[in-house]
Design brief:
- There is one protein chain.
- This protein is mostly beta strands and 163 residues long.
- It has a single domain, classed as Beta Complex (Metal Binding Protein, Guanine Nucleotide Exchange Factor, Chain A).
- The protein has 1 helix and 14 strands.
- The strands form 4 sheets. A 7-stranded mixed sheet has the order 1-8-9-13-12-11-10, with helices on one face.
- A hairpin with a 5-residue loop joins strand 8 and strand 9.
- It starts with a strand and ends with a strand.
Amino acid sequence: MIAGCRGNPLMRDGLPDIPAGPAIPGLPYLYTSGLLLFKEEVGDLQKIIEAESQDDSNPEKHPVLICRSCNHKITSEDRKIEISGTHRHTFFNPAGIVYELGCFSNAPGCAVLGESSAEFSWFPGFLWKVALCSKCGVHMGWQFQSGDLYFYGLILLQLQSGF
Protein backbone atom coordinates (compact mmCIF):
# COMPACT_ATOMS: atom_id res chain seq x y z
CA MET A 1 0.00 0.00 0.00
CA ILE A 2 1.35 3.42 -0.91
CA ALA A 3 1.28 5.88 1.99
CA GLY A 4 1.74 9.58 2.03
CA CYS A 5 0.61 12.51 4.12
CA ARG A 6 -1.81 13.88 1.52
CA GLY A 7 -5.37 12.65 1.64
CA ASN A 8 -5.01 10.85 4.96
CA PRO A 9 -8.12 11.75 7.02
CA LEU A 10 -6.14 11.36 10.25
CA MET A 11 -3.55 13.93 9.19
CA ARG A 12 -3.75 17.72 9.35
CA ASP A 13 -0.92 19.68 7.75
CA GLY A 14 1.17 16.48 7.72
CA LEU A 15 0.65 15.86 11.47
CA PRO A 16 -1.77 13.57 13.30
CA ASP A 17 -5.00 15.38 14.15
CA ILE A 18 -4.71 14.79 17.90
CA PRO A 19 -3.69 17.25 20.59
CA ALA A 20 -0.03 17.57 21.51
CA GLY A 21 1.00 16.83 25.04
CA PRO A 22 2.48 14.31 27.40
CA ALA A 23 1.33 10.73 27.64
CA ILE A 24 -2.00 10.31 29.36
CA PRO A 25 -1.74 7.87 32.28
CA GLY A 26 -3.19 4.51 31.37
CA LEU A 27 -2.99 4.98 27.60
CA PRO A 28 -0.43 2.91 25.67
CA TYR A 29 0.90 5.78 23.55
CA LEU A 30 2.53 9.17 23.76
CA TYR A 31 2.46 12.11 21.39
CA THR A 32 5.74 13.94 21.00
CA SER A 33 7.24 16.18 18.33
CA GLY A 34 4.18 15.63 16.16
CA LEU A 35 4.53 11.82 16.20
CA LEU A 36 2.20 9.30 17.76
CA LEU A 37 4.26 6.39 19.09
CA PHE A 38 3.26 3.49 21.24
CA LYS A 39 5.26 3.59 24.46
CA GLU A 40 6.80 0.17 23.83
CA GLU A 41 7.88 1.27 20.34
CA VAL A 42 9.80 4.27 21.77
CA GLY A 43 11.37 2.07 24.42
CA ASP A 44 12.31 -0.59 21.86
CA LEU A 45 13.94 1.97 19.56
CA GLN A 46 15.97 3.41 22.45
CA LYS A 47 17.07 -0.10 23.54
CA ILE A 48 18.16 -0.93 19.97
CA ILE A 49 20.24 2.25 19.73
CA GLU A 50 21.88 1.59 23.13
CA ALA A 51 22.58 -2.09 22.38
CA GLU A 52 24.00 -1.24 18.98
CA SER A 53 26.57 1.14 20.43
CA GLN A 54 27.91 -1.79 22.44
CA ASP A 55 27.54 -4.46 19.70
CA ASP A 56 29.96 -3.13 17.06
CA SER A 57 32.95 -5.06 18.44
CA ASN A 58 32.46 -7.91 15.93
CA PRO A 59 30.73 -6.50 12.83
CA GLU A 60 31.21 -9.69 10.78
CA LYS A 61 29.06 -11.91 13.02
CA HIS A 62 25.83 -10.74 11.31
CA PRO A 63 24.93 -10.98 7.61
CA VAL A 64 25.71 -7.68 5.92
CA LEU A 65 23.82 -5.60 3.39
CA ILE A 66 25.97 -3.89 0.78
CA CYS A 67 25.57 -1.15 -1.82
CA ARG A 68 24.40 -2.71 -5.09
CA SER A 69 26.64 -0.28 -7.05
CA CYS A 70 30.02 -0.70 -5.33
CA ASN A 71 29.70 -3.55 -2.77
CA HIS A 72 30.47 -1.22 0.16
CA LYS A 73 29.02 -2.45 3.49
CA ILE A 74 26.03 -0.26 4.37
CA THR A 75 24.42 -2.02 7.35
CA SER A 76 23.64 -5.50 8.66
CA GLU A 77 20.56 -7.72 8.91
CA ASP A 78 20.48 -7.43 12.71
CA ARG A 79 19.84 -3.68 12.41
CA LYS A 80 16.41 -4.22 10.81
CA ILE A 81 13.72 -2.55 12.90
CA GLU A 82 9.98 -1.97 12.72
CA ILE A 83 8.55 1.53 12.63
CA SER A 84 4.77 1.81 12.93
CA GLY A 85 4.54 -1.97 13.09
CA THR A 86 6.54 -2.95 10.00
CA HIS A 87 10.09 -3.05 8.61
CA ARG A 88 9.06 -2.36 4.98
CA HIS A 89 7.27 0.78 3.85
CA THR A 90 6.23 1.97 0.39
CA PHE A 91 6.03 5.73 -0.15
CA PHE A 92 6.00 8.26 -2.97
CA ASN A 93 7.73 11.63 -3.08
CA PRO A 94 6.20 14.89 -4.38
CA ALA A 95 7.43 14.04 -7.90
CA GLY A 96 5.48 10.77 -7.78
CA ILE A 97 8.53 8.49 -7.54
CA VAL A 98 7.72 5.40 -5.49
CA TYR A 99 10.27 3.97 -3.03
CA GLU A 100 10.21 0.75 -1.05
CA LEU A 101 12.16 1.33 2.14
CA GLY A 102 13.45 -0.90 4.89
CA CYS A 103 13.93 0.61 8.35
CA PHE A 104 17.29 0.14 10.09
CA SER A 105 18.54 1.35 13.45
CA ASN A 106 21.85 2.42 11.90
CA ALA A 107 23.65 2.46 8.57
CA PRO A 108 27.37 3.07 9.22
CA GLY A 109 28.16 2.80 5.50
CA CYS A 110 26.05 5.86 4.69
CA ALA A 111 27.08 9.49 4.65
CA VAL A 112 24.26 11.82 5.70
CA LEU A 113 24.15 15.14 3.85
CA GLY A 114 22.25 18.39 3.80
CA GLU A 115 19.97 20.26 6.13
CA SER A 116 17.23 18.50 8.05
CA SER A 117 13.79 18.90 6.50
CA ALA A 118 10.25 18.27 7.66
CA GLU A 119 8.77 18.75 4.19
CA PHE A 120 6.80 15.73 2.99
CA SER A 121 8.28 13.57 5.76
CA TRP A 122 6.97 10.03 5.50
CA PHE A 123 7.28 9.65 9.26
CA PRO A 124 5.44 12.59 10.86
CA GLY A 125 7.41 14.23 13.65
CA PHE A 126 10.72 13.11 12.14
CA LEU A 127 13.00 15.36 10.12
CA TRP A 128 14.93 13.76 7.26
CA LYS A 129 18.31 14.07 5.58
CA VAL A 130 19.56 12.34 2.45
CA ALA A 131 21.77 9.25 3.01
CA LEU A 132 24.34 8.31 0.35
CA CYS A 133 26.76 5.39 0.08
CA SER A 134 29.92 6.76 1.69
CA LYS A 135 32.09 5.04 -0.94
CA CYS A 136 30.41 5.70 -4.32
CA GLY A 137 27.84 8.39 -3.48
CA VAL A 138 24.74 6.51 -4.70
CA HIS A 139 21.49 7.59 -3.04
CA MET A 140 20.74 4.90 -0.44
CA GLY A 141 17.78 6.53 1.34
CA TRP A 142 17.24 8.87 4.26
CA GLN A 143 18.06 9.31 7.92
CA PHE A 144 15.00 10.22 9.99
CA GLN A 145 15.50 11.98 13.33
CA SER A 146 13.28 13.27 16.12
CA GLY A 147 15.23 14.61 19.09
CA ASP A 148 17.68 11.89 20.16
CA LEU A 149 15.87 9.15 18.21
CA TYR A 150 16.93 8.33 14.68
CA PHE A 151 16.73 5.53 12.16
CA TYR A 152 17.45 4.98 8.48
CA GLY A 153 14.91 4.34 5.75
CA LEU A 154 17.02 2.62 3.07
CA ILE A 155 15.88 2.00 -0.51
CA LEU A 156 15.69 -1.79 -0.68
CA LEU A 157 16.54 -1.90 -4.40
CA GLN A 158 19.90 -0.25 -3.60
CA LEU A 159 20.89 -3.04 -1.17
CA GLN A 160 22.01 -6.62 -1.69
CA SER A 161 23.25 -9.34 0.64
CA GLY A 162 26.99 -9.33 1.23
CA PHE A 163 29.30 -12.28 0.70
